[in-house]
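Lecture notes, unit on protein representations.

Consider one protein chain, 378 amino acids long.
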Amino acid sequence: MTQDGTSGLDAKEQLAALGQMTGELIHDLANEMTVLQAWALLARGEQEAGRSASSELERVLEISTELGVMMRDMLETVGGRTVSPEADFDPVRLTEATLAHRVRELSGISVRFHSSLAPGMKVGGRSSFWSRSVRNLLSNAARHARRDIAVTLREVEDRSGRQIVLRIEDDGPGVPPDRREEIFRPLVRGGDGEVGLGLSSVVWAMGQLGGEVSCAPSGALGGAAFEIRVPTARRTTSPRGSAGVPAANYLDRMRIVLIESDPSVRRSLKRLLARFGAEVLDLIAEEGGVDRLLSHVEGALPDMILLNLEPGKQCGLSLWNRMCLECPELADLVVFTGGEASVDPGWQLAQHTGQPFLAKPYDLGDLAAIAKSFRPSE
């Protein structure tokens, strides 16, 4: 038996499942990093030629944001915690946006999209699971298709309730019946089809949304048809984080103290916050000792304090505890920041302080949502 009371076999199975999920996310990360590098090189080429690189830089930003979301998924998975949910999302709009990005990267393939979903249909959960699954299934279809891919969205109802079904069909050779379950296993490759971790990643992502994925023959195009099914959202939840929180509205004119030891993070975050109108004072914990640091913080009259859990030689929690004793009004303004590694005792302790926590890589929408709650009433 293990210390938590589970059998050795259960522990091994859990570790194997953890390794599989992490491997799937790393596979997707590697793909996105390759795409990011390509777009960055294109942007540099445009700049060197004296042309505007705005469209290339827009793609770099989009991919960087997705990489941050993937890192968050992976860190939460490695930490053994349930992946945190988000607000409900619109599957039609998200599918359209995902297809628009991927279709322009395909060559010689026609992609048709049709949705029969009623307006306002929602899926509950993290939108990145849906968009990532659509990308993986579309990329898989593009590798096998001769000319055509059809993508459809519809609603079905069975004993389990109302479900949203996305179907991606191609006119390729199809998948033999004896391989339609095997291809969803990690590291299984389909000969020249090169089916790998991408499809098993879809299985994991759909599990996070309470759904499933399956493969069948395409009656319309003659190739393969992949379907993902997820339950419709029971109710609309309040938006969280990046779900529609405008950063400029809540960061403008906020006085923010940034306590961060990493110079590159400090510089980039300070410039980003200033771009959205915030007044930023960046401090390093070990310079001048705790007393001087607290004096600087108090003198800044901040609206919010971004405090890294490891801001150098000082522990972020120790600094916060000093604030609680000497300047409790400052302690209430603290937002802890860190890498979200739940195996770190400091991270776990920070979760019990009642203060917000902002995980690296930072999501600007999450930061804006926190800033909204700290913003003084006008």
